[in-house]
Design a protein that fits this description.
- With about 240 residues, the chain is mainly β.
- It has two domains: about 30 residues; about 200 residues, Cupredoxins -  blue copper proteins (Immunoglobulin-like, Sandwich).
- It has two helices and 19 strands.
- Strand 5 and strand 6 form a beta hairpin.
């Protein structure tokens, strides 16, 4: 083998070694997962039925219940927001949808990075009215008749914001604006999973509209899963 070919071979081997040394290690995963459940401590009360008193041709097509505490047969709480506090990441604002469908807010709890734009849609084809209650972001109160299919509203700062409909008193929901991309809303079984969290020690906080907040510490390791299981009970 001549010296030119030897040089080419050595250069190729060096490139492979370098690429393996800079983030290309087989099986290596940067960041970890925080997952767990949010459950009710005790026997949860059954959700109260809601009486539909207006626009029954649209609003009474299905039964309504109060959605402030929805608990499944295993005790799992839906619509709780879980946030990994202090985890640094690129919380990219985007566009998220908050619908008025069947005279309910869908989803009941909407979480998103601060700076995002809420696309408020009216799928019902009747008059609704969006009324928000906030402190660090401007509140707004706007009618949305059937011909106004979409209203866009930007939320710049992190905050928990209550949303109601002045036209239908039973309708209420929540917007949770976060300063981190590491958050989740529990499903109907009370479970959640937050992926790609940078390795480190964090406080994980859960918020539920009726039961308040709770937190616990977790140690997140690259490629691992840290558990955070919460048991919430009514505030005394």
């Amino acid at each position: 083998m001549n010296m030119k070919k030897v040089g080419i071979l050595l250069a190729a081997c060096g490139s492979i070694a370098l690429s393996l040394g800079v983030g290309a290690i087989p099986g290596y995963a940067a960041g970890g997962t925080v997952s767990g459940t949010v459950k009710y401590d005790g026997t949860a009360p059954a959700p109260k039925k809601v009486e539909v008193t207006k626009d029954k041709e649209v609003c009474a097509l299905h039964p309504h219940v109060e959605e402030d505490l929805l608990v499944d047969s295993s005790g799992g709480i839906a619509n709780a927001v879980v946030i990994v506090k202090g985890a640094k990441g690129d919380a990219k604002p985007g566009e998220v949808t908050f619908d008025q469908k069947g005279c309910d807010y869908v989803p009941h709890v909407l979480a998103f990075p601060a700076g995002s734009t809420i696309k408020i849609t009216n799928s019902d084809g009747i008059l609704h009215n969006i009324h928000t209650y906030s402190t660090v972001n401007p509140s707004f109160n706007m009618a949305q008749p059937k011909f106004k299919k979409v209203i866009s509203q930007k939320v710049d700062k992190p905050e928990v914001i209550k949303v109601t409909c002045d036209a239908h008193g039973w309708m209420h929901g929540w917007w949770v604006s976060t300063d981190t991309p590491y958050y989740a809303v529990t499903d109907d079984k009370g479970t959640f999973s937050i992926k790609d969290v940078p390795a480190g020690n964090y406080t994980v906080e859960v918020w539920q509209e009726k039961l308040g907040t709770a937190d616990q510490k977790v140690d997140v390791k690259d490629g691992g899963t840290a558990s955070a299981n919460f048991s919430l009970k009514p505030k005394s």
